[in-house]
């Protein structure tokens, strides 16, 4: 998939996720695009996979591109970025890792959830 097609699909999936749930995260978009299997994501959440990036079917550059497109689209549409701190291994205080390197910037990008400013869970 070329960059232009990927960008279009990212925006479409982001709009669909936000329309349905009021939020969108990089991992949800990757699952919707078929770049991350839900089972692999669940295995990572349970600590069976050391870092999520290992299971993503995009290369590191395309993964970073996906997150950059999401960030730019969120800004354009007025979505708010929230950092989620609940990526903790259940039953422990161990933080789950997204990337091979553990780079703080990349980890923060993975942990960002975009929220529609008009969404209400009521």
Summarize the structure.
With 122 residues, this protein is mostly helical. The protein has five helices and three strands. The protein is globular.
Task: Give a written overview of the molecule.
The chain has 122 residues and is mainly α. The protein has one domain. Helices cover 48% and strands 8% of the residues. It contains 5 helices and 3 strands; from the N terminus they run αβαααβαβ. It has helices at 3-21, 26-32, 38-45, 60-77, 104-110, and strands at 23-24, 80-83, 112-115. Strands 1-3-2 form a 3-stranded antiparallel β-sheet. The mean pLDDT is 91.
Total separate domains: 1
Structural class: mainly alpha
Query: Number of DSSP strands?
Result: 3
Instruction: Name the helicity range.
Output: 40-55%
The average pLDDT is: 91
Strand order across the biggest sheet?
Answer: 1-3-2
Strand content: 5-15%
Cα-based radius of gyration, to the nearest Å: 14 Å
**In whole angstroms, how far apart are the ends?**
38 Å
Low-pLDDT runs of 5+ residues are none
Number of helices: 5
Tell the overall outline.
globular
Following the backbone from N to C, one meets helices and strands in this order, namely HEHHHEHE
Described by strand count, sense and barrel closure, the largest sheet is: 3 strands, antiparallel
Name its key features:
122 residues; mainly alpha; 8% strand
Chart the SSEs and their pairings.
Blueprint: H1 3-21, E1 23-24, H2 26-32, H3 38-45, H4 60-77, E2 80-83, H5 104-110, E3 112-115
Antiparallel strand pairs: 1-3, 2-3
Helix pairs in contact: 1-2, 1-4
